[in-house]
Amino acid sequence: MADEKPTHAQIYEALGKLDVRMAQTDERLDAGSNRFVEIKKALDEIAEAVKPIPQMQADIAATKEIVEAWGAIKTFGKFIKWFGGIIVALTAIGASIFAALKFAVHIGK
């Protein structure tokens, strides 16, 4: 009995089961392919979304330079204001000394 050959009906039944399995495998492969298409679309959308980032970085760097320059101008303005105060004080001291010397010379005559 071990040497029994399958009947045509058994062969057709096995082929039918094989066809079902192949159809199921094809469905799974199609579903996997569809998932890959969806993933590719999502990656393309992400790539499109991040495309302007280098330009944004350049704009941010330029803005940072402008802000730093403005900070330097403000610091220079504070220095001028401080230095102007010293000049006014020195001018007042000089004028006082000049007036005192003029008064001393006028009294000494």
Notable traits:
single chain; 109 residues; mainly alpha; 2 domains; 2 helices; rod-shaped
How does this structure look, described?
The chain crosses the membrane at residues 82-105. Keywords: Membrane, Transmembrane, Transmembrane helix. This protein has 109 residues and is an all-alpha fold. The chain is built from two helices and no strands. It is rod-shaped, with a radius of gyration of 47 Å. The protein starts with 7 loop residues before the first helix and ends with a helix.
Topology overview:
Elements: H1 8-50, H2 53-108
Quick one: biggest sheet?
A: none
Strands, total number:
0
Q: What's the number of helices?
A: 2
Work out the oligomeric state of the chains in this entry.
single chain
Strand content: under 5%
Cα distance, first to last residue? Answer: 155 Å
Extract low-pLDDT stretches.
none
Shape: rod-shaped
Q: What string gives the helices and strands in order?
A: HH
